[in-house]
């Protein structure tokens, strides 16, 4: 057992690391879904845009300026998307809002395609995060170790915010009952904006960690992680923040174990890599069929 | 009222016949390499898949995002079935694998099998997925499409699917012959005929008792079930039929492209199709068709200059460079989604009587206005 | 004793810890108009939903036309939670749980308390679609118009049904564009199109004025006689209930508190207490 762990440590370590990065993105999905009942298809692309901003900003500005600037710009982007594409459709059927989200995703991807010329951009090295460390015989980057810790710290802070601040309470109220909260005088639009701001902020942090690991950004590098993080949110029980985090870690680890499938299970050749993405969706379908509310989800009251 | 409907129907038939004649004449008289034929062929194929998506999303109210996956199954089934055995045995396509399918079929059988294979997969996938509600259904069907893509790229299945490599040298549009002769069939007309027959079948279905049952499910599931409509059976039926035609359109796309690769059928393709359906109007067949042709014409032809440095006579190579077309395009789409959310047609069909009425009204309005100025 | 069409035996419906219908037993005989009344929240619609298959009752048996359509005993979580009565009575019985469409196919049609017409369809299509269930065509023959004769017959029947309800003039209007009273009538016509033996009406007179209510009552009697129906309805309008129903069941807090002819029920102090509260 110990030998096995040792031999495959690199897969497990990168699994935990990717899991943490997914968790930061998944929170954005789960919070938006909790409040608006909307799968924010554009969230993965916001994450990609944060990566691209970093690429462009760091060419002219020092790291100490570009990191905060990326955070601010991403937050602004998330805020603007909500105001421009979702707010006008507040009273429209849910399907229209989802279509609008898909449209925004399409727009962001095509904008990125235009500005980058479709080429993969090399992600700048963030000095401290990119340092190589050796743990128990496996070499890895510092970011692998930092990610889970940073994730947990941010999640704890977020939980405190939701539990004790006024806006956090408003958020919980809105996610329980949108209409009643509105009638009770909660400023719905502020709450929704705050949700998008938090989600985008976490996505920006996630993008710094994620792209430090992957080293390059393309216009479509937001798509797959985005979908996976949504799956993580559903897996953990949509609307539940701890659920999204745990779901993300499970998916991150499982995905990396599958990538190392041929060395771990000893057969199958290179085919396993193909399935690391498909696995996520298989997991989604299983959870939706077996327990649609996810691991920690509350039972939805569905009025006929 | 009935007589009027009949007249309307005959006008529609005549208009459609006219379109076919026009296509046939164009193809005989114009240079076949003109971009218009690309638009017509691809537009017809996209019309079919958009209509099949509309059957599901617009008429049955099932928000499914699996269309690209079913097109992929269709395209691959077609290419595997129609690739001549001789080609399969040489190394020209299956370079790294030994082809496992050692027979080949004609184009017609290939198209039907493409549809059937997609329908079969849909039937299996539908069992778990169709029990889910709205957006969960969307994400689960999207997930299944991704799984299908992964399976087709899996190297263990290489002897059948050629792994992640390109499929080619199967029977394409240039191999279509006029029955019982060796004369090649005009390719654009062929695509129009194939897609047209399929769309006609979907229209017939929608206007049948089953189509009404689908709409009842879309409008109110509880009432539909209380009136004796078996929800699961009808949803599954709509899903399978929609997938059948998506499979056929995938096969037609493979014929048109000469080569096909699993990597092409990503979620982005489904999004594109969904946006076409939205532009045309969810629940409108004619809207989907018009939107498909407009979409393809705009992206392949009219807005091409945006990518090539020159557009509407303006020469700005720095602005109009590769990718600008799609960028502008997605902005237009967002405008439609936000401000014209009912699309071109809403949930109505194009009506010639309506067009004439509108035309007349405008004329009389113009006339009175003109009269006003005179007086 | 008359032949009963619908029979509920010890039906209990429990949601979590809440017992919405408790040990309800009743019979509806062939050709009768029976009313189910009770104060708001008494569990009337829940009882209806148990019959129509929307809910699967926690315990009890329901039979229709001599055939058992539901026979349940507390299962799973409900084994422990069950707070109703007669928990053991149906333990040996095989559980049956038909979906609403299967119930409708057996010959039970219903209307809804809050009208549920198909919004995007015309008046004509609303009724025509309800005929889909009894149609014998399959998807291929329907698409290829091989069964156009059946389609033609369905259309003729629909037109006849609409004619009879004085709705034919609205045939090509959208169902939701009709005035409220006509929408109710259309919902009944749609239910009739499924060729039922038993018609369940959930507050058919809701929102109607006394004159409309009176007309509705006469209309119900008229269709009952014409189609040899049995009618079981939930209603709040006491005039309608007292004048037109043969028998009445009264429930309160999910339990049956009284039943009998209108005169008997009207005089029952328990009923008066349930509606007006106990004076102490």
Shape of chain C: globular
List the secondary-structure elements of chain C in sequence, H or E.
Answer: EEEHEEHHEHHHHEHEHEEHH
Coarse structural class of chain B:
mainly alpha
User: What is the radius of gyration of chain C?
Assistant: 20 Å
Which structural class do the helices and strands of chain C define? alpha/beta
Count, helices of chain B: 16
Question: In percent terms, what proportion of residues of chain C is strand?
Answer: 15-25%
Poorly predicted runs of chain B: 366-375
Helicity range of chain C = 25-40%
- Our estimate of the beta-strand percent of chain B is under 5%
> Gap between N and C termini of chain B, in Å?
40 Å
Set down the secondary structure blueprint.
The complex is a heterotrimer of chains A (304), B (375) and C (280).
Chain A lengths: L1 H6 L1 H28 L6 H18 L2 H24 L7 H23 L4 E2 L9 E4 L2 E4 H23 L1 H11 L1 H6 L4 H27 L1 E2 L5 H14 L4 H19 L1 H5 L5 H20 L14
Antiparallel strand pairs in A: 1-4, 2-3
Helix pairs in contact in A: 2-6, 2-9, 2-10, 2-11, 3-4, 3-5, 3-9, 3-10, 4-9, 6-7, 6-9, 7-9, 10-11, 10-13, 11-13
Chain B lengths: L1 H28 L5 H25 L7 H16 L2 H5 L17 H23 L4 H20 L4 H4 L5 E2 L18 H20 L2 H11 L1 H6 L4 H27 L1 E2 L6 H14 L4 H18 L2 H4 L1 E2 L2 E2 L8 H16 L12 H23 L1
Antiparallel strand pairs in B: 1-2, 3-4
Helix pairs in contact in B: 1-8, 2-8, 2-11, 2-12, 2-13, 3-5, 3-6, 3-11, 5-11, 8-11, 9-11, 12-13
Chain C lengths: L3 E12 L2 E12 L3 E5 L6 H9 L6 E6 L2 E6 L5 H4 L18 H7 L1 E3 L12 H8 L8 H5 L4 H17 L15 H14 L4 E5 L7 H17 L3 E5 L3 H7 L2 E6 L2 E6 L1 H6 L1 H8 L4
Parallel strand pairs in C: 3-8, 3-9, 6-7, 7-8
Antiparallel strand pairs in C: 1-2, 1-4, 4-5, 9-10
Helix pairs in contact in C: 4-7, 8-9
Describe the structure.
The complex is a heterotrimer of chains A (304), B (375) and C (280). Chain A is mostly helical. Chain A has helices at 2-7, 9-36, 43-60, 63-86, 94-116, 142-164, 166-176, 178-183, 188-214, 223-236, 241-259, 261-265, 271-290, and strands at 121-122, 132-135, 138-141, 216-217. Chain A has a two-stranded antiparallel ribbon. In chain A, a hairpin with a 2-residue loop joins strand 2 and strand 3. The termini of chain A are far apart. Residues 366-375 of chain B have low confidence and may be disordered. With 375 residues, chain B is mainly alpha-helical. Chain B has helices at residues 2-29, 35-59, 67-82, 85-89, 107-129, 134-153, 158-161, 187-206, 209-219, 221-226, 231-257, 267-280, 285-302, 305-308, 324-339, 352-374, and strands at residues 167-168, 259-260, 310-311, 314-315. Chain B is built from 16 helices and 4 strands. The longest helix of chain B has 28 residues, at 2-29. In chain B, strands 1-2 form a two-stranded antiparallel sheet. Chain B has a two-stranded antiparallel sheet with strand order 3-4. Chain B folds into 2 domains: 1-30; 34-266, no CATH class. In chain B, a hairpin with a 2-residue loop joins strand 3 and strand 4. In chain C, 43% of the residues are buried. A 6-stranded mixed sheet of chain C has the order 6-7-8-3-9-10, with helices on both faces. A 4-stranded antiparallel sheet of chain C has the order 2-1-4-5, with helices on one face. With 280 residues, chain C is an alpha/beta fold. Chain C contains 11 helices and 10 strands. Chain C is globular, with a radius of gyration of 20 Å. Chains in contact: A-B, B-C.
């Amino acid at each position: 057992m110990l030998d096995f762990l040792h031999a495959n440590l690199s897969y497990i370590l990168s699994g935990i690391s990717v899991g943490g990065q997914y968790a930061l993105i998944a929170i954005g999905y789960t919070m938006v879904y909790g409040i608006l009942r909307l799968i924010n298809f554009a969230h993965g692309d916001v994450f990609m845009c944060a990566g691209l901003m970093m690429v462009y900003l760091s060419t002219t500005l020092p790291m100490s300026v570009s990191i905060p600037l990326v955070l601010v710009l991403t937050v602004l982007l998330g805020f603007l998307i909500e105001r421009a594409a979702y707010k006008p459709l507040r009273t429209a059927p849910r399907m229209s809002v989802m279509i609008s989200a898909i449209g925004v995703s399409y727009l962001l991807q095509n904008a990125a395609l235009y500005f980058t010329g479709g080429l993969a951009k090399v992600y700048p090295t963030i000095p401290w995060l990119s340092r190589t460390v050796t743990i128990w015989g496996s070499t890895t980057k510092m970011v692998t170790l930092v990610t889970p810790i940073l994730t947990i710290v941010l999640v704890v802070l977020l939980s405190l915010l939701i539990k004790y601040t006024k806006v956090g309470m408003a958020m919980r109220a809105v996610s329980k009952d949108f209409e009643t909260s509105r009638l009770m005088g909660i400023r719905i639009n502020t709450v929704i904006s705050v949700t998008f701001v938090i989600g985008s902020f976490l996505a920006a942090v996630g993008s710094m960690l994620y792209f430090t690991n992957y080293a390059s950004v393309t216009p479509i590098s937001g798509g797959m992680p985005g979908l996976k993080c949504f799956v993580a949110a559903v897996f953990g029980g949509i609307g539940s923040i701890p659920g999204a985090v745990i779901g993300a870690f499970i998916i991150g680890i499982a995905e990396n174990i599958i990538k190392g499938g041929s060395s771990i299970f000893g057969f199958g050749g290179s085919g396993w890599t193909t399935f690391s993405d498909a696995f996520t969706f298989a997991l989604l379908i299983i959870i939706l069929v077996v327990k649609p509310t996810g691991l920690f989800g509350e039972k939805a009251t569905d009025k006929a | 009222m009935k007589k009027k409907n009949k007249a309307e129907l005959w006008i529609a038939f005549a208009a459609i016949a006219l379109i076919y004649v026009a296509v046939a004449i164009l193809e005989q008289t114009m240079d076949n390499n003109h971009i218009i034929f690309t638009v017509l062929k691809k537009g017809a194929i996209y019309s079919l898949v958009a209509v099949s998506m509309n059957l599901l999303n617009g008429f049955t109210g099932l928000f499914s995002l699996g269309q690209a996956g079913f097109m992929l199954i269709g395209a691959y089934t077609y290419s595997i079935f129609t690739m001549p055995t001789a080609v399969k045995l040489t190394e020209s396509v299956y370079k790294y694998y030994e082809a496992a399918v050692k027979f080949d079929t004609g184009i017609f059988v290939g198209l039907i099998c493409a549809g059937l294979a997609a329908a079969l997969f849909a039937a299996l996938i539908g069992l778990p997925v169709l029990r889910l509600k709205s957006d969960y259904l969307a994400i689960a069907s999207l997930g299944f499409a991704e799984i299908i893509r992964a399976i087709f790229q899996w190297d263990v299945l290489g002897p059948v699917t050629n792994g992640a490599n390109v499929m080619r040298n199967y029977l394409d549009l240039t191999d279509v012959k006029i029955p019982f002769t060796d004369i090649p069939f005009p390719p654009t007309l062929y695509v129009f005929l194939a897609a047209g027959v399929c769309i006609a079948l979907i229209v017939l279905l929608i206007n049948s008792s089953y189509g009404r049952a689908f709409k009842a499910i879309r409008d109110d599931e509880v009432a539909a079930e209380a009136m004796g409509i078996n929800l699961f059976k009808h949803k599954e039926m709509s899903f399978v039929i929609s997938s059948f035609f998506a499979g056929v359109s995938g096969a037609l796309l493979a014929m048109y492209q000469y080569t096909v690769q699993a990597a092409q059928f990503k979620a982005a393709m489904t999004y594109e199709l969904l946006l076409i359906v939205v532009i045309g109007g969810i629940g409108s067949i004619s809207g989907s068709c018009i939107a498909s042709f407009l979409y393809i014409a705009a992206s392949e032809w009219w807005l091409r200059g945006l990518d090539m440095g020159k557009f509407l006579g303006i020469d700005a190579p720095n602005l109009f460079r590769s990718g600008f077309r799609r960028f502008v395009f997605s902005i237009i789409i967002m405008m439609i989604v936000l401000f014209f959310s009912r699309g071109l047609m809403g949930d109505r069909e194009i009506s010639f009587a309506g067009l004439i009425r509108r035309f007349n009204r405008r004329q009389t309005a113009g006339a009175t206005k003109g009269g006003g100025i005179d007086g | 004793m008359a032949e009963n069409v619908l029979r509920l035996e010890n039906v209990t419906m429990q949601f979590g810890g809440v017992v919405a219908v408790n040990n309800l037993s009743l019979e509806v005989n062939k050709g009768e108009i029976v009313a189910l009344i009770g104060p708001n929240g008494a569990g009337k619609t829940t009882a209806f939903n148990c019959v129509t298959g929307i809910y699967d009752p926690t315990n009890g048996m329901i039979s229709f036309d001599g055939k058992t359509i539901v026979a349940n005993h507390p299962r799973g979580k409900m084994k422990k939670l069950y707070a109703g009565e007669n928990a053991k009575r149906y333990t040996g019985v095989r559980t049956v749980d038909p979906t609403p469409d299967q119930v409708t196919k057996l010959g039970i049609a219903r209307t809804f308390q809050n009208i549920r017409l198909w919004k995007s369809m015309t008046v004509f299509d609303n009724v025509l679609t309800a005929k889909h269930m009894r149609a014998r065509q399959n998807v291929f023959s329907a698409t290829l118009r091989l069964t156009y004769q059946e389609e033609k017959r369905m259309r003729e029947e629909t037109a006849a049904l609409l004619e009879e309800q004085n709705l034919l003039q609205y045939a090509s209007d959208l169902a939701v564009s009709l005035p409220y009273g006509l929408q109710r009538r259309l919902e009944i016509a749609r239910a009739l199109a499924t060729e039922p033996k038993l018609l369940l009406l959930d507050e058919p007179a809701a929102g109607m004025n006394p004159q409309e209510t009176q007309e509705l009552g006469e209309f119900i009697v008229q269709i009952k006689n014409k189609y040899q129906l049995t009618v079981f309805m939930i209603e709040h309008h006491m005039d309608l209930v007292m004048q037109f129903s043969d028998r009445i069941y009264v429930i309160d807090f999910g339990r049956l508190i009284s039943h009998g002819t209108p005169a008997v029920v009207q005089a029952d102090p328990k009923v008066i207490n349930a509606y007006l509260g106990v004076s102490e």
